[in-house]
Amino acid sequence: MKSSVFQVESMVVPGGTESIVRGGRDLFPLLPEALHGVERIGVLGWGPQGRAQALNLRDSLAGTGITVSVGLRPGSASAEDARAQGFSEDDGTLGDWLEVAAASDLVILLIADAALAANHEQIFAVLKPGATIGLSHGFLLGHLTAIGSDFPAGHPVIAVCPKGMGDSVRRLYQQGATVNGAGINASIAVHADPDGHGWDRALAWSIGLGSPYTFATTLADEYRSDIVGERAILLGAVHGLVEAMYRYFRIDGADPVTAYERSTEAITGPIARTISNDGLVAVRAACGDQDLFDRAYSAAYRPARDLVAEIYDEVADGTELRSVILAEQRLATRPMTEIGGSPMWSHSTEVHARRGTPDHTVWYGGSEGDGVAGVDAVTAGLFVATMMAQVDEFAARGHAWSEIVNESVIEAVDSLLPYMHARDVAYMVDNCSRTARLGTRRWGPRFQAAYEQIALPHLDRPADPTLVKDFEDNPAHDALAAAAKLRPSVDISV
Predict the structure, then answer these.
(1) Is the pTM of this model over 0.85?
(2) Which of 107, 188, 235, 458 could make an S-S bridge to 202, C-beta 3.0–4.6 Å?
């Protein structure tokens, strides 16, 4: 990462250093210079990311003479909300998506992945010569690669990928007006840079969104880590794990509420908080039975690693992306069914109501009713094993440490799991992006089967000392400690 406008710093990670750039509202006056001639930014789409990014950029660039416009497809139901937020056909800040694309110097493509795959040729055809193509996800690159195509020559292609949900991108930006450090960190990539200004433009976009810290990646690494992570530790594996653990505890004799608390509540509450505050190794130390944690970790690590590797291969070769596009075609005429119908989710409201009461039990894996905040050793061992399996697979595939710990750990424990704690896992899965929903529905049951059929039946086996030592000595702990210093200063969960 390089910049002629912003100061680039180095973050020490295992094996070397990585580049970061600090954001801040004091840098907003530098945005026009960093955008290098961009006079009009067109944001296509008004989903959670489109809405947040259009509003943040408009506010950050107020008074600079740079216009932010929103482009929507004909008949879009989002037009009314865009108008309510101050975008208007009358002043040229709201219009047809192709007309907005044709008039813009930076075109940020934030429509749904499958829709972008189906309509990218129309958008490319109307671009101004030399206009910059902006992405917040590398799905389109994966699709173009799979069909033997590419981005149009002569156009810069950059990406800014916020590490949180669109609602959080907007809410924390607004908090940033009064709370130092509020905002969502982002990774950036420069895929094509024909005029040499790609890094500056990407940094200006990221800082304009309110990112406290910006990390560098590549567009290929971004979409692979992002899509794999959604299907693994961020969503799919979590859903599979809580379903498996709920059934496990019920079979073992626990009542439904206790089974829910020892599975879902343990992961979204004390396990997530322990990792966020003190790191992964601290989870093992927090367990009342560390030998049981080690046995659970040893039983789950290899089957989880096998699944993460399989997902990665299918993302990298385009199979997973094609499944999303095919599913979108099927779903054009019928809604996607929800996953929150299994028996465990009927107890969510009761469990949430018990929080903070004398009846509320948060488990160490010790005696029922101890009322002490902690983590269940079996649930913790399986969860941490899956998280480390993803970390190790990403490291083996050559991803940067900043990307590994953000996509595998920080986004999980600081954003998604707290959101699930406030709502529940099923709610999160049923209300995320189409790409993530489809991936979770496909891979969550695979993880559930692996836990139920491979990991849990092997809990009586001795822990694998090599796996436990590899966990304790993993360089990811140092990388996580370095990246954790750069996290936002406020809660980003809900």
Answers:
(1) yes
(2) 188
